[in-house]
Amino acid sequence: MQMKEKLSPFQTAILVYLTQSGVTLFSLPRLVAEAFGTNGWIGLIIISFIVNINMILIWLVYKMSKGKSMFEIIAIFPKWITFSFCVFIAVVWMLLGIMVILKFSMIIKVLFYQNVSLIYLLSMSYILTYLLLKKDIYQIAKATVVLFYFTVWTVFLLAFHLPEFSFIRLTPFIFKGDTDMLKGGLSIFTALLGYELSILYVHKIDRKPLRSLLVGNSITSVIYLGVTFVSYGFFSFEQLLREMYPVVTLLGYISFPVLERVENFTFSVFGLKVLMTIVMYLWGTKELIQYQFKRIKTNFIVMGILIIGFSVSFVPKVIKDVDQWLTYITYAATAIAILLPIFLLLTILTSKILNRKAANE
Amino acid sequence: MRKDRNRLLKDFKLQKEQIFEKPNFAGESILQKFISDFKISSDLSVTEFPHFTVKIYYFSYLINKDHYEQFLASIRNITAEELQSFLNHSEFKVLTEMDSVEEAILSGSAILFTENQAYDLPFKEGKGRSISPSETETVILGAHEAFVESVDMNLSLIRKRVMSSQLKTIKLLVGNKAKRNVYLLYLEGVASEKDVEEIKNRILSIHNDAIVDTNMLVQYIDEHPNSPFPQFYTTERPDVTAYKLFEGKVVGLMENSPFAFCTPVSFFDFMESMDDFGQRWIVGTFIKVTRYIAILVTLLFTALYVAVSTYHYEMIPQALLPTLLESRSKVPFPPVIEALFLEFLLELLREAGARLPTKVGQTIGIVGGIVIGQAAVQAGITSNILIIVVAASAIASFVVPSYLLSASIRIVRFGFIIISGFWGNLGIIFGMGILIIHLSTLTNLNSPYLLPISPMYPKFFKYTMIRGPFKKKTERG
Known about the structure:
The structure holds 2 protein chains of 2 kinds.
Chain A: H1 9-20, H2 24-36, H3 41-64, H4 70-74, H5 79-111, H6 118-133, H7 137-156, H8 181-191, H9 198-201, H10 209-234, H11 237-242, H12 246-252, H13 263-292, H14 298-312, H15 319-360
Helix pairs in contact in A: 1-7, 1-10, 1-13, 2-8, 2-10, 3-10, 3-15, 5-6, 5-13, 5-15, 6-13, 6-14, 7-13, 8-15, 12-13, 13-14
Chain B: H1 2-18, H2 29-37, E1 44-48, E2 55-59, H3 65-76, H4 80-89, E3 93-95, H5 98-106, E4 110-113, E5 118-121, H6 151-161, E6 167-174, E7 180-187, H7 193-204, H8 214-221, E8 233-235, H9 238-246, E9 250-254, E10 260-263, H10 274-278, H11 281-310, H12 321-329, H13 335-355, H14 358-378, H15 384-399, H16 403-441, E11 443-444, E12 447-448, H17 461-464
Antiparallel strand pairs in B: 1-2, 2-4, 3-5, 4-5, 6-7, 7-9, 8-10, 9-10, 11-12
Helix pairs in contact in B: 6-9, 11-15, 11-16, 13-14, 13-15, 13-16, 15-16
């Protein structure tokens, strides 16, 4: 069997899922409760639907440009425009990746490893990130699939909570309580971010690009929905609002006959999921920088990104600072996710019209 | 006949002394070259004839003496002209190059030099070990024959199993000084021509003085020489080799090596045994799944013990806690030292057992069993529970059917123990991350190492991950 250097639909779906599934998962049920109130899990379906529309936009870019990459599309602009454009996106994505590493490391330090210095935790993440980042997207995707198998079993741990699940806790009310649909909805939307990176690799997908993207998002949505639904039936609504990281609390209830309180183990396993989010965002950054500076060797760019990332990691001091950073960065990333495909679509359309005019003249 | 033979042997002894005398006939530059090349070879024999200018050179232990004597008897009483016409009409190959003369005589031919030509008299003797059951890859159900050092015998073992004209063989020479034949075998139309070409080029590009075994050869042609994991599948079983040929793989045989290599292979090929196919598919699948669990146990069990007993006591259920604490209380070292000590001792025992003769090996087993089992605990060096853990992971490591993979995994396990001693569970996951990234980027002949898991090909699962039921129709990868 000889392998083509293309992403198979399955790999793409897994890549999208693991990029989307990040640190927000741990606080997701609370975020949903804050945003949509009672039975907020229904709201997740709506958000997931919006993401699907956004994915269709990305697919349209691919379809209308007849398989061109994003860089080929923006090549018609003058250099200074593409430069500032790429650098802006690169900075946002890089900061997002870095803050995700930082947040996960801080959570794990606060919850399980209070005496371990943050530098150790960060170094571990950066070493793993480096190992993946120096490879190309095809290799990253191969590792992603194995990491998926290694982490996906954690979803089935939800079965441990089913005996404690009670429909009464769901309450008969829908979207009641102190809700903040717009701001809250946006914060939940950020939990599904990560799919927008597919604009960089959509042309590398072997076949059925739209379906593989949608399947990826569906996997994320189903898992998010499952976790949120179980949390709604496991915790009371009030409790859910007060839990900082409801999913971590959920994990704490799991026990096996020979091992109990395995949450620090399973939480570390989640780290590998978070790793893929980081790797993909930094990969996006790497691609954008590489496009601007074609002469620099890839390894130097990767090292540069990681060194900058490591240094920036020491600016925020506590999780609250990181959350503040993350809020602004994810807003920017959300804007990129929605506007970038639209902008590219417009570019393709205008260049087509201009070409046609030129041909007519 | 016997008398004849004795006389001939006497002749040989006399002639041996004359071997390196300057030939008394002219125009035989190939003979001169031959003589200068084989200058100091006291084991080289020569037969000369009084009535014609012919010399036959050979290594007496490489040729079949009976055949040779028959040949001598047939030419002894003929004239020089008759001999020439006999040689012209015989099937003996004429050798024109010095290289081919050298190759022929070293592979067991006698070389007959006439005034201006050299003839290859193939009286090769198939001396060597007879076929015996495999020691490294034993099976309960299935054929017991294993390869031997003679490549001809090995080829015959494969030909017997793959009776098809589509089985193609390519002969290559490896090594600068000591040349050795390597045979590449593949089924035409089943194996990829690209693979054959690639492996051929890689073997031809080796410029090394001497490669003595298949397991050495494959390390010269693999893509990731610094990985601890074996990338070419080597086996000494002809039935496995035949099976791999039918799967579309390229097989390599090397002269004087009882191992064949197969490529392209994935990690899961190392987890297979011919026994799986002899069993009912449900049993076979169960055994395969057991092996995957065994790999995880080998890799992580001791590491998990170290992590839990160093950092995560809360993970142990209350009922088990007193037992563990009691067994740990006498031990003065941290768990990681204790575990490394015991694991290292076990590796020593294993290595000692592997090199020693069977009878002495048993003594090692008893000494090791008593020292590790009883004395270490009583002396307070290790805890009881750790012994169970280490024993379990050692047993699990022997479940892996491939000796090469089993050895790699045992090495990697030490990494996990050390890292879990530093960072506990987080360290284990970190190590797992590195291992996964490493394995998923490995390749063998440009084919991914973790195929069909990554990249994912679910339709091959039933041939690799599990042992699916046999189909009446053949499907190929």
